[in-house]
Amino acid sequence: MSKVIIGIHGLANKSRRHVLKTWWRDSIAEGLRHNQGIAQPHFRFEMVYWADLLYKHPLHDDAAFSFDKLYNKEPYYPAKKKDLERYDDRWIDRVRAEGTEIVGRGLEAVKDTLGVGRIADALLARVLRDLAFYWDSARKIKGRNGVLRPAEDVLNAECRDPLVKQRQHEVCLIAHSMGSIIAYNVLRDLGRTDLGIQVPYYVTIGSPLGLAHVKSKTRATRWDNKVRTPSIVTERWVNLADRRDPVAFDTHLADDYGPNALGVRAVDDLVLNDYAMDDPNPHKSYGYLRTPEMSALIASFLQ
């Protein structure tokens, strides 16, 4: 049985599919070279790409048109080796984790009473448009077949179809940002089918799954009203987060998501996302994909 890495991107518009796929693959390979000493990394990689379903025109990389709002100001670039540092966990990180967990439980408790859910929905609509579309049952977009369907159904299908196609292979699914929400829902749903799909490694990066409002919305879509490790994740769910990443404000999922029947539960690992062009962007996928922690995970999967 061969092994395949599947990546799913996150929020906002992206470069064209083949460009983004190349940059994700290059980021992973860069990390394997620098962090694991693998001179010529060989691995199969597939990209779940859904930006073109929400955006009419992709970003471009033509510097002659750098004034264009569609110019990609944050492309992939190779990091300096000294920038790829492993995060040094400290006792204060546990204190922060417990603090965000307490705050999160408090927000969930008062959400319905104070209307926090409605406020959060309004904020999502203004700031995180993609996610607002995903959760808006009235919002319909065209799928690959041109048929209008709820955005959630269309985007879930983009993640589900590659997993079904690769079901005879061992899969490491890497999900970034909003992609981790889509992937989580798809993995839970696939666990209720008889397709026999297994995903040994599920890796979330820069994930908002720990945010109180996201957990609440996710729980509401589950038949058992619970958030836990999807049953088809058979070996590891690792959550990589940079504590400077605003999307992954709650960097710890282990206390939020229960184990599945196999005893697999989320394991949190803080990392240092090195990505910086004009300004640092600790949420950028390329920085997460080449961290020493990610490289160790992928090297373990590929063994």
What would you say this structure looks like, in words?
This protein is α/β, with parallel strands linked by helices. It has one domain. It has helices at residues 17-36, 91-114, 116-127, 129-135, 151-165, 178-190, 212-220, 285-289, 292-302, and strands at residues 3-8, 44-48, 140-142, 148-150, 170-176, 199-205, 233-241, 266-270. The strands form two sheets. A six-stranded parallel β-sheet has the order 2-1-5-6-7-8, sandwiched between helices. The protein has a two-stranded antiparallel ribbon with strand order 3-4. Helix 1 crosses helix 9, helix 3 crosses helix 4 and helix 5 crosses helix 6. The radius of gyration is 19 Å and the shape is globular. Mean pLDDT is 88; it is low at 91-117.
User: How large, in whole angstroms, is the Cα Rg?
Assistant: 19 Å
Strand content: 5-15%
Shape, please?
Answer: globular
**Proportion of helical residues:** 25-40%
Keywords:
303 residues; alpha/beta; two-stranded antiparallel ribbon; 15% strand; globular
Quick description:
38% of the residues lie in helices and 15% in strands. It is of the alpha/beta class and 303 residues long. The protein has one domain (3-302).
Q: Secondary structure elements and their pairing?
A:
Elements: E1 3-8, H1 17-36, E2 44-48, H2 91-114, H3 116-127, H4 129-135, E3 140-142, E4 148-150, H5 151-165, E5 170-176, H6 178-190, E6 199-205, H7 212-220, E7 233-241, E8 266-270, H8 285-289, H9 292-302
Parallel strand pairs: 1-2, 1-5, 5-6, 6-7, 7-8
Antiparallel strand pairs: 3-4
